[in-house]
Amino acid sequence: xxxxxxxxxxxxxxxxxxxxxxxxxxxxxxxxxxxxxxxxxxxxxxxxxxxxxxxxxxxxxxxxxxxxxxxxxxxxxxxxxxxxxxxxxxxxxxxxxxxxxxxxxxxxxxxxxxxxxxxxxxxxxxxxxxxxxxxxxxxxxxxxxxxxxxxxxxxxxxxxxxxxxxxxxxxxxxxxxxxxxxxxxxxxxxxxxxxxxxxxxxxxxxxxxxxxxxxxxxxxxxxxxxxxxxxxxxxxxxxxxxxxxxxxxxxxxxxxxxxxxxxxxxxxxxxxxxxxxxxxxxxxxxxxxxxxxxxxxxxxxxxxxxxxxxxxxxxxxxxxxxxxxxxxxxxxxxxxxxxxxxxxxxxxxxx
Length: 351
Prior knowledge:
single chain; 9 helices
């Protein structure tokens, strides 16, 4: 198998996202990377679900962790009857896929495919199907990376020969793919990354990947995007999305909406990358996850507010289609109002 993670930044290598081996799942702790490089060790699938819920890994990382978690679940029930193993894995799939409410539909697709791989292996009398599930997990990542590689080319085609790009949060694989393609096209671009509180994914993760890929990258605070667009001549704003509704609404890390508003005002196009979600035909099918408000009252564990004040922390916000210049997919750039033109939307689930 030709691995699609070749030439990408270290943290985008499969083993450095989430990996099943010898009855454990190792997940890079993105809450502290790159200040500290540690992996959370999960001894059972419930610990994998907890790690996903606690944002040990974010962006597309949970999709990899979910599949590796299913491999671990297969190891946990190895040796039982075929019926018992299928029952155990079905319950594990529900636990893992429901770790975070906003992305449940996609997670269910991933765990369902893992469950089917386990069933197929069990038909051959294999007692421990964990390796079969892990192989499927690697194949899932390879297929996703290959598709995002096509998306990355379409996105990089939109970049100027020499200019400035603004990102939001951590767009995972698409960041690596768009920059790999920009290198191929010999485009000289600067990247500006808002820090993305409260986990600082932009400053720690996106900026690190951009730097590892050899690009000029500048971190800005979350209240600077409008000023930077005006003062630094930003040519394009781009993000990935946790959900792209088929009606054109984009659900992404909170803060995306306000940057899109600033971009519209300054005449900066906003391109979101990903796949339309058949599981979300309209925006009212999306449940916005509310996280612990205490997180906004501190920065990386250091209190930043009076102990008696309250915090407010929606994990995502919703950007309406009128603020979206285009949805960049592996099949080309689509209008947010014409996502029904995406062929195979019923079969796509990995963004």
